[in-house]
């Protein structure tokens, strides 16, 4: 039986990186657990400089003067077959949220889904989310575990400046804005939890494999 991850696609991203892509039609958390293990194993392979997990994919950065890309590609295929998923061992982090704020989408999303605002907040704050990947901008986390009922296409017209700390959903994922930036995700609320601080070590507060629970601090209707 075909399973997501059985047919990896590998492509060159410049002279010193390969993208290892095993994504299927929908995000697979089991495949993502394999990606995390795979990324750690590859860090010890001579010539590999960095591994960066994405959503059911992995960017492998290497030194082309030390490692032939064809050799690396063959190693990726072989090593992936031998890689098994392992449960996440990251921290559980509670993030306090004030739901609803001026300029947000809480009421609109509730209406779109046929839910009361209170029910929407309860459904968004109920799961324990997993940090599937970190990327797009410094410290931004892609959170898997959103209730499928709340899945929603991104806005047709992105906002040019979604404020830092905005608690957002887009597609089948949840997230938090680490800084003010353009985004097409829907804003449900705001948190004072700081995802990224360049003066902090490490600068990013959350990492792949960590878990997140949103805690309702207040609901502004």
From TrEMBL:
Parts forming coiled coils: none
Q: Name one Pfam family in it.
A: CT_C_D
List the GO molecular function terms. Answer: ATP binding; hydrolase activity
Q: Which residues form the Carboxyltransferase domain?
A: 8-206
Keyword tags? ATP-binding, Hydrolase, Nucleotide-binding
Would the keyword ATP-binding turn up in this protein's UniProt record?
yes
Stated name of the protein? Allophanate hydrolase
Q: Organism, per UniProt?
A: Ciceribacter naphthalenivorans
Instruction: Identify the taxonomic lineage of the organism of origin.
Output: Bacteria, Pseudomonadati, Pseudomonadota, Alphaproteobacteria, Hyphomicrobiales
């Amino acid at each position: 039986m075909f399973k997501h991850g059985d047919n990896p696609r590998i492509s060159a991203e410049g002279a010193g990186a390969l993208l290892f892509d095993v994504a299927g039609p929908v995000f697979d958390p089991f495949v993502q657990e394999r990606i995390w293990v795979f990324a750690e194993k590859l860090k010890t392979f001579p010539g590999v400089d960095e591994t960066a997990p994405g959503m059911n994919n992995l960017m492998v950065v290497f030194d082309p003067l030390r490692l032939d890309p064809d050799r690396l590609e063959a190693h990726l295929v072989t090593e992936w077959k031998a890689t098994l998923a392992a449960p996440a061992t990251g921290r559980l982090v509670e993030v306090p949220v004030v739901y609803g704020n001026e300029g947000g989408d809480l009421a609109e999303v509730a209406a779109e889904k046929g839910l009361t605002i209170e029910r929407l907040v309860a459904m968004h704050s109920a799961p324990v989310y997993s940090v599937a990947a970190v990327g797009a901008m410094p410290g931004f986390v892609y959170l898997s575990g959103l209730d499928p009922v709340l899945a929603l296409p991104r806005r047709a017209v992105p906002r040019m400046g979604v404020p830092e700390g905005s608690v957002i959903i887009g597609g089948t994922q949840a997230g938090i804005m680490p800084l003010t930036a353009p985004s097409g995700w829907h804003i449900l609320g705001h948190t004072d939890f700081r995802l990224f601080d360049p003066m902090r070590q490490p600068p990013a507060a959350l990492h792949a494999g960590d878990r997140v629970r949103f805690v309702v601090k207040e609901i502004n209707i």
